[in-house]
Amino acid sequence: MKEKVETKKYTDFTPEHIKKYLDEFRKLILKGNYSISINKNRQKNTDFIETYQIDTKKEREIFLALQYEDFCYAVDNEKEAYSNERLYIFCKEYELDNWGTTEYIEIYIKTNILQTKRGDDFLIVVSFHKRNKPIKFQFK
Question: At residue 3, does pLDDT exceed 50?
């Protein structure tokens, strides 16, 4: 039987560390080197994108608007094969259109920058949905 990987929450970051992470994050967004996880385990992402009619232009706008103050914490990847990876969690309040009704939504965004087999950096947006649990901001 496989042991469940113990995930740890990390909050020992400086604003400079998170700004540097976001610089790399933005470069990958602008290059189009990113993907939002859309699969059966990530139904919340699909539902969120459909409910708020988020197209590529809008998702890029949201991602590029992230600031270091939106950072909450980082965690180890709970998947055993990727336990060496650290996922960064942000929460951004954003005005979105819910089929004609404007709403201010707190968007929960969990990200992972990893390297492809060719050695290129690639951004995976693991979570992109309405905040569904309490969070604390590190720099607000």
Answer: no
